Amino acid sequence: MRISGNTIFIAGGTSGIGLELAIRLSKEGNAVIVGGRRRDRLEEITAAHPALGTVEIDVDDTASIRRAFEHVTASHPALNVLVTMSGIMHPEDLTSPDSLQIAERTVTTNILGTIRLASQFIPFLREQEAATIITVTSALAFVPLPMTPTYNASKAAIHSFTESMRVQLADTSIQCIEIAPPGVRTTLMGQEDSEAAMPLDAFVNEVIALLEANPEAKEIIVEAAAGLRYAEANGNYDEMLAMLS
Ligand SMILES: NC(=O)c1ccc[n+]([C@@H]2O[C@H](COP(=O)([O-])OP(=O)(O)OC[C@H]3O[C@@H](n4cnc5c(N)ncnc54)[C@H](OP(=O)(O)O)[C@@H]3O)[C@@H](O)[C@H]2O)c1
């Protein structure tokens, strides 16, 4: 993917990594539209970052995805990049019946939300001369954090989904890129002040640099994510799992 001159829709761009990426990509010379459920956040973003477009979207709801799709493609017919950033992460105690509700919500947003977005946008994107779908998984797709079992599983599912999607779309104009972040300082699960997580701006800077350096990249793996991403290949999976346990 070239780093400028695109029209990019980031579903899940109202905070954290999505918003930081939107601001940076806008500065790089892309038209960027961010989406999310929180109307107050969308209004704040419009006021603080007038260059960014906004659209309300709930990826748990197919009708909402369709409305957002119709809105962004009507207002931005050159749209050629979809980023499926929307995600939730909650701890689950598998010995408690309450965990089932968390698991079902996680599957709905993180797995179904991504698949529904891809399904809605692929027919439109494949008509563009050069298009990209960027999915967002996690280093935890490759070694799980036992405290968040369904979250890890949802990201592993989207890793696998992206691998198949890339093969199915190989003969189209759509490139598929997976970003697998390490811990990054956002409010996703209260890690905004964690020393163990990467500062948000440093993470997004590294992502942009990697995209720029390798426009054909299949995966964007920053240095801090490499240990978990390649643990199995490196032969230290058990050691990494013990560290996360
Ligand atoms: N931060 C990390 O350490 C880390 C590590 C690995 C992967 N990731 C992934 O990076 C992505 C962004 O997370 P973040 O850390 O930036 O956390 P965040 O600030 O909480 O961002 C999550 C985004 O997802 C949106 N979202 C959640 N549920 C949604 C729904 N049903 N429909 C539409 N949008 C929804 C939120 O918008 P609204 O609330 O406005 O809907 C928000 O914009 C997630 O997929 C996360 O799993 C993060």
From TrEMBL:
The keyword Oxidoreductase applies. InterPro entries: NAD(P)-bd_dom_sf (IPR036291), Sc_DH/Rdtase_CS (IPR020904), SDR_fam (IPR002347). This is SDR family oxidoreductase. Belongs to the short-chain dehydrogenases/reductases (SDR) family. It comes from the Bacteria. The keyword Oxidoreductase applies. It holds the Pfam family adh_short. Keywords: Oxidoreductase. It comes from Agrococcus versicolor.
